[in-house]
Design a protein that fits this description.
Layout (H helix, E strand, L loop, with lengths): L1 H46 L3 H8 L16 H18 L6 H27 L2 E2 L1 H4 L1 E8 L1 H8 L6 H12 L6 H11 L15 H30 L5 E5 L3 E7 L4 H9 L4 E5 L3 H16 L10 E2 L19 E5 H4 L18 E5 H4 L8 E6 L2 E6 L4 H9 L1 H4 L5 E5 L4 E3 L2 E10 L4 E2 L3 E9 L9 E8 L1 H13 L5 E5 L2 E4 L11 E4 L5 H13 L6 E9 L1 H54 L3 E2 L1 H30 L4 H33 L3 H33 L9
Parallel strand pairs: 1-21
Antiparallel strand pairs: 2-4, 2-20, 3-4, 5-14, 5-17, 6-7, 7-8, 9-10, 10-13, 11-13, 12-13, 15-16, 16-19, 17-18
Helix pairs in contact: 1-2, 1-4, 1-18, 1-21, 3-4, 7-8, 9-17, 18-19, 18-21, 19-20, 19-21, 20-21
């Protein structure tokens, strides 16, 4: 008996030590965060920049750029690299030139980086809280099924009018898009195989295949989203299907909703295409000008209104000094189609355009553009006001005839050229040389060396698989001294000049605005491309204050329940009640350690599960104490009464708890969201309460009885 109790005592001590070790990171998160805030504020006081900006500068996840892998660096080399990186960031990001000030900042920045890393490690091991406790983002997204179906069409000539009719009926309805499209085709006596499927396929077979493609696309979207969110660093995200085309996403702890949407919703279709030569570009621009001069959409007598904006560009940066830039209404520019120019969210003004009136009549298209000569090659710039006009011209049938083998693509965002805002326009060959499916890894790094103009700029380094490396090697050998466009979701991310053959299967994407942008792009490239675009139709943000209020109320409810049970047990059962309270406290400690150790998430319903567990845990001790009392009334000794009381109560406790555990397992398996959170804490709470109520209290009672501390029941 004593040997058995010794083993149980050792087991209890082991569990207690493990629980304390497991919960230690949870207790250290807030103090470490306070230290991070303090260090950020100290650097902010020295530099005058906001503390939040200081934090992002010195804690950005950018590699040191050493030629040696980190594992081969000595401790001294690694520390020296870190110090050099902090100096570089002080100069590059904070624009500091005072060397004495930089030397004051470096140790603080190193301490900040180390403390932040420690905090991240603590957070990874701490108890994770759900959306309702710490705030976060709730999104409802919808897979763009019409876009997916349109992309699956083998032949698109003549499909657009029918497709647009089906799309109009589909919007705002819950009907199946493929069924609507089938009705439209049937009304026009057109078979599905004209646009979809293979020769010989029946309409039913094609519809079945399209439905499979749609279902597969939604499943793949779920998988890609899970991969992206896992790498985004969200603890226990909730991602689930709603109906046939919607996906619910809950991201606990994510405050930057726009960044989250960009990471989640980016299609990440990456492709490589060759940029056309300057000679080919000039020839095509001349052909487009000639074609436009012959169209009826352009009137030679234009009502040009003088603009108040000075759009003259420095002469050294352009092919020619702009003589007179003036504003013209698009209704005049496209007289016969003035209602067909749609508003474009990327354009600042889609009602008018800025043109050079001296060149407009001879060059109606290039008068909307600016050609910049710098960095050894030409750059096409389009003013934001002109974007809608340029897109409209490129959509004209006679212009499309000229661009069968090439296409114009926009750059990612507006950028400053010659002190003004412009969109870049690229002419690339339509042949896709390589896609992103060959990428095996993508990570951010520091671009260029110390003498390079890109030194210190974030970029994305991609690693290709063997097949991709072979394709890329042949491609770069073939286009030496030409530009290769790296295109993400239909927009040119960068267009580096290929100087040498690249045989090692590595490529870089430059032009990142920030480390966060580079990190997010690397993330979506690693996680894979979405099979279809996504649209966010609902979004809600649970603020930190609401989450903290939930934590406060939940904690208060738990403490009140715990205190009530503790007081009742002591008053009613005296010493045995105190022993039960010790087991109850250990039960709570082990339960929180289990949540932390297994990476489970605590939600507000989970707090309710903990409170319920406290009641059920003490209920087991009530059964035991009452059994012991009954045994003592029959005249048994205190030792015999305790032995029989625990033995007979065990079956009742086991039956009650097993049925509750089975219920919790069912809820855990089939429940989602709040139900799952409740089931998690209920399952672990009941399982642990059986151990504490039966084993822990028994060891304590036997220990005290053996030493004569309990000679009769104190209740």
């Amino acid at each position: 008996m004593q040997r058995n109790n010794l083993f149980k005592a050792i087991l209890i001590v082991v569990f207690l030590v493990l629980a304390i070790i497991t919960l230690y990171p949870t207790f250290q998160v807030n103090p470490t965060q306070e230290k991070v805030d303090k260090l950020s504020q100290e650097i902010s006081d020295l530099t005058g920049v906001p503390s939040a900006q200081v934090f992002s500068v010195f804690c950005g996840d950018i590699q040191l750029g050493s030629k040696k892998p980190d594992t081969e660096l000595s401790k001294e080399e690694h520390q020296k690299n870190l110090e050099n990186e902090m100096r570089t960031r002080s100069v590059r990001e904070l624009k500091i030139k005072d060397k004495e000030l930089i030397e004051k900042i470096v140790p603080l920045a190193l301490n900040l980086r180390d403390t932040y890393t420690t905090k991240i490690n603590y957070e990874a091991k701490a108890i994770k809280m759900g959306l309702d406790l710490q705030g976060g983002t709730f999104l409802v997204s919808e897979v763009n099924i019409p876009k997916l179906v349109y992309n699956l069409a083998k032949e698109k000539d003549g499909l657009d009018p029918i497709f647009n009719e089906a799309l109009a009926d589909y919007k705002g309805s819950d009907r199946d898009f493929i069924a609507i499209l089938a009705e439209k085709l049937s009304d026009k006596n057109i078979q599905f195989r004209r646009f979809f499927g293979e020769q010989g396929d029946t309409d039913n077979e094609i519809r079945e295949q399209l439905n499979k493609e749609v279902a597969d696309a939604i499943d793949r979207t779920l998988e890609v989203l899970r991969n992206r969110i896992d790498q985004f660093g969200v603890s226990e995200p909730n991602i689930q299907k709603q109906g046939d085309r919607r996906i619910i996403i809950e991201l606990a702890g994510i405050k930057d909703i726009n960044r989250a949407k960009n990471v989640i919703g980016t299609t990440a279709e990456l492709r490589f295409q060759v940029v056309e030569s300057e000679r080919a570009l000039e020839d095509l621009l001349n052909k487009i000008n000639r074609a436009l001069r012959q169209t009826e959409d352009l009137d030679s007598t234009l009502n040009i209104v003088q603009t108040e904006t000075d759009t003259t560009v420095a002469e050294s940066d352009t092919t020619e000094k702009v003589a007179t830039d003036e504003k013209i209404q698009l209704a005049d520019l496209f007289k016969s189609k003035k209602n067909s120019v749609e508003q474009d969210s990327a354009s600042k003004d889609t009602t008018s355009a800025i043109v050079d009136k001296n060149t407009y009549k001879e060059a109606p298209f290039t008068s909307l553009l600016r050609i910049f000569k710098g960095q050894g090659y030409e750059v096409i710039g389009v003013a934001p006001e002109n974007r809608a006009a340029v897109e409209y011209i490129l959509s004209l049938d006679n212009v499309k005839e000229l661009t069968k083998d090439v296409e114009f693509l926009w750059g990612m965002d507006e950028e400053v050229i010659a002190e003004q805002q412009w969109y870049r326009l690229y002419l690339v060959r339509k042949t896709v040389e390589m896609t992103g499916r060959y990428i095996t890894n993508a990570k951010i790094s520091m671009g260029g060396d110390a003498q390079s103009s890109r030194a210190g700029e974030a970029e994305v380094d991609m690693t290709l698989n063997n097949e991709g490396a072979k394709i890329f090697s042949q491609l770069t050998e073939r286009i030496i001294n030409e530009k290769l466009a790296i295109i993400l979701d239909g927009k040119v991310k960068s267009s580096p000049v290929v100087r040498v053959k690249i045989p090692n299967g590595r490529a870089s994407i430059e032009g990142m605005a920030s480390a966060d942008e580079a990190r997010d792009l690397a993330l979506v490239l690693r996680a894979g491309a979405l099979p279809a675009p996504m649209e966010f139709i609902e979004e809600r943000t649970v603020g930190p204050s609401l989450g903290q209020d939930s934590v406060r109320k939940g904690t208060l409810a738990g403490l009140l329940g715990f205190a009530t049970v503790v007081i009742f047990m002591i008053v009613y059962y005296n010493l045995f009640g105190l022993i039960a309270d010790v087991a109850l406290f250990l039960n709570l400690l082990l339960l929180m350690a289990a949540l932390s150790g297994f990476g489970l998430t605590l939600t507000l319903p989970g707090v309710a599960g903990i409170v319920l567990t406290m009641g059920m845990a003490v209920d087991a001790n009530v059964l035991i104490n009452e059994r012991i009392r009954e045994e003592e009334k029959t005249g048994k000794t205190i030792r015999a009464a305790i032995e029989n009381g625990y033995g007979r109560a065990f079956i009742t406790i086991f039956d009650a708890n097993v049925t509750t555990i089975l219920t919790a397992l069912v809820l855990l398996q089939f429940g989602t969201g709040p139900i799952k959170g409740f089931a998690i804490t209920l399952f672990w709470g009941i399982a642990i309460s059986m151990f504490t109520a039966i084993v822990v209290t028994r060891v304590i009672v036997d220990f005290m009885t053996a030493r004569g501390m309990i000679k009769k029941l104190p209740f």
